[in-house]
Design a protein that fits this description.
The protein is of the alpha+beta class. The protein is built from 7 helices and 12 strands. The chain has a 4-stranded antiparallel beta sheet with strand order 1-8-3-6. Strands 2-7-4-5 form a 4-stranded antiparallel beta sheet. The chain has a 4-stranded antiparallel beta sheet with strand order 9-10-12-11. Mean pLDDT is 87; it is low at 1-21.
Length: 234
Amino acid sequence: MASSAMINSSMATSPAVVVPQRALEDPLAHLPCSTIVEYKKGQVIYNQDQPSTSIYLVIDGKVKVCRLADDGRQVVVDIYQPDEFFGESAFVGLAQRTEIAVALENTKVMTWTTNEIEEITMKRPKLAIALLQLLVQRSMDFGYRIESFSVDNIARRLARTLIRFSERLGSKNDDGSIQMIPFTHELLSQYVGTSREIVTHYMNQFRRQGYLRYSRKGIMLYRDALREWLKQPA
């Protein structure tokens, strides 16, 4: 139990280790403009029946990427916003893939096929470096998430999820709170790894404790207060 508490404390207080920004190559600096495709809110971009053969760049809107668990449940990998890439699973080349990408709102994406990417990297090797750095950073993020699954209860996993989404997808208000889009409890449950009903229970608890407010218009998160709560022993 002591070791779990130490890990919890470390995860709450220590910032994630990231590759120094000056060392990162920007994939966009090495990619030519390509085809732009538009998707309506809720439209499937690719799924297990029509797997991705391209890498995608979000131009406008937001995209949810999921994997299907063995029991058929969707597990949210991440949510991607403008200037972020997704669809890198196309490079794996597996015969069966269980990844699904869905437009969370009206969305525009730019696409490059894997063959196009391979041809471009032959001429511009720094593109390969940029994409590898992107994959390494995401692998590190997934590692922290797996660690949380190992040591955190559901309430703490939900708190970390809200903080992460606020950092990536939120905007700061004058009072220091963070404004986010109205994530559904179903989506949050798919990311946290539990049921919608349990997420609703803890969201209501966080609201009563003053860590957030939410409605159909969005979520207002008091991130600093929630971080302080995470520092407390589980």
